[in-house]
From TrEMBL:
Name of the featured protein: Alpha-mannosidase
Start-end of Polar residues biased regions: 1-10
Domain of life: Eukaryota
CC cofactor: Zn(2+)
Protein family: Belongs to the glycosyl hydrolase 38 family.
Amino acid sequence: MAAPSATSRRGNLMQKLASPSAKSKGKIRRRGRLFQEVILKQIRLLVLFALAIFVIAIFKVGLPGALQPTLRLITPTIGFNLSESQVDIKMNELYDAIEFKDLDGGAWKQGWNVQYTGNEWDKHKLRVFVVPHSHNDPGWLRTVEEYYQERSRRILSTIVQALKKDKERKFIWEEMSYLERWWRDASEAEKRDFLTLVKNGQLEIVGGGWVMNDEANSHYYAIIEQITEGNLWLKDTVGVVPRNAWAIDPFGHSPTMAYLLRRMGFDNMLIQRTHYEVKKILAQKQNLEFIWRQSWDNFNTTDIFCHMMPFYSYDIPHTCGPEPAICCQFDFWRLPGFGSALRCPWRYDPQQITIENVQERSETLLDQYRKKATLYKTNTLLVPLGDDFRYITIAEADLQFENYQKIFNYINTHPKLKAEVQFGTLQDYFTAVKDEIDARKGKVKVPSLSGDFFTYADRVQDYWSGYYVSRPFYKSVDRILEETLRAADVLSSLSLAYCQAMGQGHFPLSISEKLTAARRTLALFQHHDGITGTAKNHVVVDYARKMHSALLDLQEFMAKGVGVLLGRDGSQGMCRDADLDIFIPEKEQRSHDVLPVRRLADVVSDHVQRLVIYNPLEEEVKQVVMVLVERTDVCVLGADWEPIVSQVSPEWGNTREMATGKHRLHWQVQVPPLGLQTFFISTSEASHSCKAAEVAQIEVFHATDSFSCPSPYKCTHTAEKVEIQSQHITLAFSVQDGLLQGWKNQRTSMEASLQEDIAFYSSRGSGAYLFKPLGEASSMVSPGGLIIVTKGSLMQEVLSHPKSIWSPSPASRRARVYNGVDTVQGYIAEMVYHVELLDNVYNDKELIVRFKTDLDTGNTFFTDLNGFQTVSRETREKIPLQGNYYPMPSLAFLQEPKGRRFSIHSRQALGVASLKSGALEVMLDRRLTRDDDRGLGQGVLDNRPMDVTFHLLLEGNISSLPRIAASTPRVPSLLSHLVLSQLSYPMHTFFAKAENVTDAHRSRLQKTFAPLAMKFPCDLHIVSMKVAKPLDDLSSRATKKASYALTLQRRGWDHSYCRRGQMQCSRFSDKPISLSDVFGELQISTSVLSSLNLLHDASKDIGQVEPSGRKQGGGFRESKGLISMAPMEIQSMKLDLSLDKESLSLQAG
Ligand SMILES: [Zn+2]
């Protein structure tokens, strides 16, 4: 039976005769920073001294009442403003140096004619590690289950069988999603063999994440979850802790991965898909191996050794050396007549290795190895040997292993060849290369590097920036699943602690399997063909169905968790599943491919609707919220039955037919951190204390005959200007088309012109991966569109149905301001774009929104990486438009040299560019008929109706500090962090099911749940809080204590954009806080610091250094309960939370 031939994501690089590239760029200048360094050293010394005094004082005096370990968070005063790390290579500067001429390098088309003299290995022979691998996408052209059944299952069995035959054979495996699946099907003997092979070093698990995640669109929360899920399974089942990461297929690489891997205890990482010009310039100086350092890391604690592969692809033609026509001949699966349909496209076929040809074949292959070795500093060489879904049959595996072994035997027994070649794992390679570096005592200088590897181009003008946006609907579902999983995890932790205090751990445990399933679904979607939107239609549907079902489970669980924490009526016994059918989520997820629908609050004349709002954030949230109601004579009551000011306004539909007949009820809430707050919605007749909702005013522009003013609202058609305002900001819009024109901050009188436009690119070469526009974008808006302005005291909105070259218009836009008291929301403009690129008239169109401001920003702008950090971007003329697009997982901003800053916070991943000074554009959706020749074999025509939500913020620099150096990393302000965190982690509303809320009933109800005893500082974020190992740990310890995992991040933020007193919050550096104090009645009985994947308890494994040592500043330090955490750091810890019954009864009372 012929094995299915693997389809690779590669095109055909046409091979031409050699023409060596002439240009060799000079070494990256290391600017004179001597003075700066001296100053820094002084500051470091001072900080160390102060810390030492503090620590000594604590040791002497002791911790107050520290009978049990107390987690205290103290802070070193470093990082007041983050400064830039010192490195040999900065990617920004490297980009300045590259000419992007795509010179023809000959046989190595994107490089040069590589030469060697032959005496390079006289002293130290060349050591080659050939690393067999098989790249298994968990979904791409087939669904993950289809791939598993057809290929991966057989591949894993083949690997075990093939390695058993010969101890010399090695293999590496990456994806735990497949291994876990195989483990369920494998025989006991197969599993035993697998474990033996891992133990004896023949088989290495690399990365060990659930998938090999995308690095552009993925959020750091999801990356941590996906790697941790894979790593925990691996440790529990195989007993292995991975040390080397392997990312050969993600389309561009992010330093966030380097940081997270370092803090997970990884020693080394490997990357492949970087711009071909970047590969070339690094190779010219033998800088393809480097220490990847975070740009904000002044203490070198984030350093991780990184190997970048030099050539076009990870397949066999592009891994043995620079000449694919030769390397392909050593892919023995392409031997004609052996069942594979795959052939070498460079004319020459592989040949079986025989006694007759072994010398010639060995020397030919060794020539490639030697050429490749000249691109690296050491005599140790890595040669991956594999491709997509390879080693599917034992015949295929034997073909590769046996032929290679013959070559190895020949080379290794001919000393004059001065080489030693063997199969190896990634660990074998990295150990050897580091041993060599050590042995050559300082003669091999591995450069340090900071920055990222976006935007990836694999050939000519083919930039992979389309996938930042492809299938944006599912990118938004991804974030909804993330925030819902995080919220459910927090609720499950709290419910478990409370239920266990009552001796009833059953409820939270009963859902642990569903939590795990949801986590694995989120993990799966982080795959580089999942969240990227680069899979076939039916595979996208498969991911979407899984996410939909996970969302339903999580919502149902949360509704029950609310029941646990508030109880039915304050009585005991609330941890039994059957008793928890009290609440339903306000948002209904009807199907995998539509936006969630809001349920109506059930308000009839004699019925009061109870609802509970859950705040999953660590900060108290004050916010104007909304539910849909069927009538306008409604009112809102607080937990203690006091009336609350509210506003009703019509709900406008997304089509021009307008009012849906439902009404939006807005009011302001205040919900405790990680807590719950109850509200009641009633009618004026049902409760006398009620204060009727204010009815909004409506202004309409350019209405057609079909527009009718919904009752009981009054619609005016006479207004002359379109303007909405809150107490902080005023937004002005064009009367012609309803698009935003200006922004004014009331209190500071700061203004900005802000010309919004909705425009589109036409393309002929764009596909799921590539963005290849024909010229610049054209505006789709013309004057005369319908504009509806809703004005009330709590919320004001401008809905614009712009007139466009298409009818109906593919996009409408709602701009809102909120006018709550003391809210973060009050400072932002909420922009919601409803996009429907559903019709074929939009074929090969890519829709954007553009903000042209009067900020003088030149060609510089800022984007985030994985929601974790921000980087500065330069728009470069030498790179085509599509190469100047960058990932925007959550944030982009413009900043004047010393003044205004304009930020776009996004709820989902998209692509962004700043093509002109002061302008920022974000792509909203793309509809493409063509395949872009990267193996997918289709366009992107499965667009869904969707909403893209941005929160815009205009801030002024209030810094009285001396001018901050240009190289200072720009980070969000504290306000910007809070805006993003409220946008990304929204509150969840739950309706009580039909019940009769009588006075007596009401007084028995528990209405508030507030687990934290004190506030978190504003710059400290709970990344996640969960039951660490729900499946194994708890079933055996059901009634005992559970182990929780808490992950915190100390945000890095820009002090020059923070107005003291603007927000009611303290900062981490203001005063130390104790987690025990924060959690109040939830006692932290034990605590252990941990790596981010929860596998290492020792801090030395994850790059964190004792402050008493020479380095300081990275991560946490734990000593007698004292912990410090530097800005930007993320830290996990394992805790036991417990609650005594006494405080429980107090709570109920
Ligand atoms: Zn892949």
